[in-house]
Queue: 2 jobs
Job 1
Amino acid sequence: MSEDRLPLLRRITRKEHAAIAFTLDGAPCEGRAGDTLLSAILSRSDSLRRTEFSGEPRAGFCQMGACQDCWVMTETGERLRACTTPLQPGMRIVTMTGKAA
Ligand code: FES
C-alpha cells in the first residue's frame, strides 16, 4: 500500500479513545479503541488489500460481514474478515500482496 496517498477514511470519532498499536505489512500503525481492522487500516491507507485475481485495490464493500471483500491475514496465516474483527493490540496484519516483516 502506498504511503503517499491519502487514507480512504478520515477519523471523525474516537479521536480521544486509547491508541492501539498494530503492524500492517511490517510497518508500525496505530488505531483507536473501538476500531475494526477495516476502520483502522483505512484510516491510514487508501485501500485494504489487493485482490488476488486482478491486483486491483479493494476496501471492503458491505461493511457488515457478508461480501467477503475484506479478508486480510495475520503474519501466522490466520484469515480475518477486517470489517467484523475488532482491532487488538499487537496484531500483525498482512495484506494479500503484503510481505510480513
Ligand atoms: S466488507 Fe463485506 S464482509 Fe467485510
Note: The chain has a mean pLDDT of 88.
Job 2
Amino acid sequence: MIIERLSREHRNIEMLLAVLEHELEIFDRGDRPDYEVVRGIISYFELYPEVYHHPQEDLVFAKLRIRDPAAAAKVGNLALEHQKGAERLRRVVQAVDSVLADREILRQNVGHIVRDFIEYERRHIMMEDRDFFPAALKALEPQDWTEIASALTSHEDPLFSEAAEETFDALRARILQLEQEAEAERH
Ligand SMILES: [Fe+2]
C-alpha cells in the first residue's frame, strides 16, 4: 500500500533526523561530531527524497487535486515545500563543507542552518501525515491507486524499483551502525 510505504519512509526519515540532531548537539557543545555519520545523512537526503520519496507523493497529490481540490488546497503547495527542503539541505551541505575545509564560519551559524533543516523537515512530515495522507486515503478511488502503482512500476528509472528500496535500507542501516560505533567510542 502506497500510503503505508510513504508513512514508513517518514519514520525512517525521522530516525535519521534524530541522529543528525544528536550529532548537532555534540557540535553545539564544542565537540567534534562524527562527520562520516553527518555526511552519510546528507547523502541520504540528497538522493532519497528527490529520486524516490517525493515522486511517489507527487503522483498521489496529483490525484488528490482531481478528487478533492479543497483538501489538496489545504495541503498547500507540496512541490514548493519539497523544493524549500532541498534548498535548506544545500545550505547544510555548504555549512558542513565550510567546517570541514576550515573556512571561516561561525559555529553558531552552522548550528542554526542544520537546526533549521531538521525543524523544517519535521514540520513538513507532520503536515503530510496529518493533512495529506488521510485526505488521500479518503478521496482517492481504487483505480487511482492502481494507476499510481502502475506508474511507479513502469518507471524506467532503475532507482525506482524494489532494489532501490533495498539500497536505501542498506544505506540507512550503515549510517545507524556508524552512529552506534561513534556512540560506543564516546562513552
Ligand atoms: Fe513525505
Note: The domain at 2-186 is CATH 1.20.120.520 (Four Helix Bundle (Hemerythrin (Met), subunit A)).
